[in-house]
Amino acid sequence: MEGAAGRERDPLLRSEIHGFITYADLNFEKLKAEAASRWFRPNEIYAVLANHERFKVHAQPIDKPVSGTIVLYDRKVVRNFRKDGHNWKKKKDGKTVQEAHEKLKIGNEERVHVYYARGEDNPNFFRRCYWLLDKEAERIVLVHYRQTSEENAIAHPSTEAEAEAPTMNVIQYYTSPISANSASVHTEISFSPLAPEEINSHGGSAISSDTGGSSLEEFWVHLLESSMKKDTACGGTSGQSYNISLYFY
């Protein structure tokens, strides 16, 4: 019992990045219990990978893992860790598994690779493979399998509701000052583009596409600005002032 208690109090490596000070703070047993119902957050993934010595690293691929399975491999040792017995959606050549790739952020820095695959026979079954961008720690991969009916499970992580709500970011934009004779238009857009587990520990977007695309905030601002320009060109909103609030949950 003392050994187990001591393990719970043991400090974790790289806690300054992922935010979990001790093994108890990470609560890996709780993570495993939740693996079938949600995807892990970027800092949780980082903490597990950076402290993989504390967990079992498998020497062979698991055959047909079920939803909720999480498994660690050494990519240098188990090079065929993707050979799991499942039939995944293929590229046009019919041979290579089609995998989307993104980089997850913790704070403002990209920290984790993620590769998404979708079942061919069961389109609601997904696999995610994570490993660190850090070249000195990239050998270990965390593979997570989930059965879920969520949309955009590959391009964007889970949109299912979670108990822990993310921080709401409110961004306001103002055009020219309101004059005494002008009308005032207030526009609000509220939506939840990412699930809580995909929000990083600092409340920002946890996903950074490696294609260099614009952020969701920039996209909506650009869309609204384009709309205002069209209205002005048509004489529909001339002389009006806009107060635009974008709510990102």
From TrEMBL:
Residues 28-154 form the CG-1 domain. It is found in: Nucleus. The keyword Nucleus applies. GO terms for molecular function: double-stranded DNA binding; transcription coregulator activity. Keywords: Nucleus, Transcription. GO terms for biological process: regulation of transcription by RNA polymerase II. This is CG-1 domain-containing protein. It comes from Aegilops tauschii subsp. strangulata. The lineage of its organism: Eukaryota, Viridiplantae, Streptophyta, Embryophyta, Tracheophyta.
